[in-house]
Amino acid sequence: METQKKKNVELKNPAYYNNRELSWLAFNERVLQEAFDKKNPLLERFKFLAIFSSNLDEFFMVRVAGLQDQVKVGFTKPENKAGMTPKQQLNEIAKKTHQLVELQYEALQNTLLPKLQKEHVEFVKTADLDTNQLDELERYFEEYIFPVLTPMAIDAYRTFPMLLNKSINLAVRLEDEEKRDEEGQKIAIVQVPAVLERFVRLQSEKGSLKFVLLEDVISFFIRKLFHGFKVVSVSVFRITRNADMTIHEEGARDLLKEIEEELRKRKWGAAVRLEIQQPGFDDVILDYLTDELEVDKKDVYFIEGFLDATVFFNFYKQMAPTWEQLVFEGKVSQLPVGMETGKQIFQKISEQDVFLHHPYESFEPVVQFISEAADDPNVLAIKQTLYRVSGDSPVIKALKRAAENGKQVTVLVELKARFDEENNVQWAKELEKAGCHVIYGMTHLKTHSKITLVVRKKEDKIERFVHLGTGNYNDQTAKIYTDMSLFTSKRQFGIDATNFFNYLSGYTEKPEFHYLSVAPFTIRTDIIDLIDAEIRFQKKHGTGRIIAKMNSLTDKLIIMKLYEASNAGVKVELIVRGICCLRPGISDVSENIQVRSIVGSLLEHSRIYFFNHNGKEKTFLSSADMMTRNLNNRIEILFPIVDETIKKQVKTILELGLADNVKARRQDATGVYHYVSRKNDEPAIDSQKELFRRAYQVAEDEE
């Protein structure tokens, strides 16, 4: 391009990109910052610690595990953006993660637990209990814990046990009381049972709560498991295993069985991380475990206090109902105007396109849409993609009922939805038993699109109703994820939906769509064409503007095109919650690009792509982030908003996100994020709170 030649900018320069894995860690650091935020209620801060830990578990099980595999086979080629080799990435990941974990436990031990103690809730050690409390604990141990424990000796006949992924274990060093020599030295493993409550509650004064950790109780009474031996030390540890699945789709006669087999293997993958509890960990045990598990020293994490902070999810659930002052104020999703319960949803969609913004507006109309279709005698067929659903899904129930009512029901269940594979295998079996036609998508591609088609007979005509969304058909996550839905009965959307499902389920050439853009075929090229159009409008009229909101941005071709747009003077404003490999604010590269991330009480999940188009604004929603995996390896849908009123709604939501100065962080030219600063006279704008306020206001105005 002419502008580039003048400036002689090499847009592939690794210095202009953030490494994907380190950018993800930067995102998880933003999650951790919420645990430090004094404006968040106390129990919510504990929950953010749990989210941070849960995120980190998945990161090690998949991303770190993949890099370790590359190193093991001698792969040394740098990744294609920031130019780091697998080994360099692992070293930087370890350095950053150790820092973050240290911060996490500093927050827990020095801030959150003392604050909890002021609320008369305390976690105590067995060493600090009085005689009466220890007697109470011993009775509990004998009756409830001891019968469940299984000590696993390690000797010539009994090798080191296969320990379950993410399990907490005790390594016990023993000494035979009759043999004081080296032969009398023994090691045994005791797994902390996941079926028991992790927090053991003690009798305490009225108005206060005292808990002891289950592993602390077991450690204190461990001698009862090893009569005739002296307990030299008890070391508490936790392992994380490689849980990435290798699905051999080519040649697999039954994908369902292939995935079930891989799920069994997942529990026993190679160890990728070892967490050990301090103080009190035995150095002899440390050397023994790192040798047995083949864990590199940099992947050993010394934890001051609680192992596995994901336990605070359960703690939050237990405490929240009675400690309402320590959680966020409960927000109720509003029914959209004109979608009141009782009004036939098909009638409403026939009249006009309907837009929903979850969870500010209820997910119930989506459930109602499928439920009414299941029971409506005029509905002939329902076709739907399912990626993730809830445990007791009303959507699944409606689809089963529809099949039992004699309707043609086709469900594409994505069996390869990471960490939901087991649930989806079960749902697939249930749907098939109910009479649904279940398909599993296309070889080597995950079906990540969110679409439902209902075919209905009205007098002597056929009408088609389509639901498209940015999020999953999951009624539970719809309460905590921000997503967008569109209902339409427009004829060309219906034709597109029909062709989309026929393409997935049968043998036919890729169809031409009126409105839909589908990955891995056209989304990238369509987005690039839209950016090129903004560049042309900028050069001719000076009106180039792009706003894009997504979970992650990693695709190099898209990033380079955004750099090109920036150099042409196009104003680019990005709201990227998680990974962002693009670096903004670099002179002659990205000086016209801003990147912000919003991490708040709700998980920002909607994908919105806005192009000014010289005043003839174009707005798209999508199931897809601008990630290489989404654009190359997944079936995704990008769809336009054609209703002018809805366009304005979506743009208002985008602009509110750009105005957030409470929960937004801004990325600088070095890739580091900082809270958005505001002047003293500027009002505080928390976009999520404001969107709830507006939803409440609309509902009140309708009353």
From TrEMBL:
UniProt-listed InterPro entries: PP_kinase (IPR003414), PP_kinase_C_1 (IPR041108), PP_kinase_middle (IPR024953), PP_kinase_middle_dom_sf (IPR036830), PPK_C_dom2 (IPR025200), PPK_N_dom (IPR025198), PPK_N_dom_sf (IPR036832)
Lineage top rank: taxon: Bacteria
Protein name from the UniProt record: Polyphosphate kinase
HAMAP family in alphabetical order: Polyphosphate_kinase
Catalytic residues of the enzyme: 448 (phosphohistidine intermediate)
Functional summary from the UniProt entry: Catalyzes the reversible transfer of the terminal phosphate of ATP to form a long-chain polyphosphate (polyP).
Pfam family name, one: PP_kinase_C
Binding site for ATP: 55, 481, 577, 605
Chain positions recorded as Mg(2+) binding sites: 388, 418
EC number: 2.7.4.1
Reaction(s) the record says it catalyses: [phosphate](n) + ATP = [phosphate](n+1) + ADP
PTM annotation: An intermediate of this reaction is the autophosphorylated ppk in which a phosphate is covalently linked to a histidine residue through a N-P bond.
CDD domains: PLDc_PaPPK1_C1_like (cd09165), PLDc_PaPPK1_C2_like (cd09168)
Enzyme class: transferase
One term of GO molecular function: kinase activity
Source species: Planococcus faecalis
Keyword Nucleotide-binding: yes
Record NCBIfam families: poly_P_kin, PRK05443.1-1, PRK05443.1-2, PRK05443.2-1, PRK05443.2-2
Polyphosphate kinase middle domain location: 133-315
Family: Belongs to the polyphosphate kinase 1 (PPK1) family.
Keyword Magnesium: yes
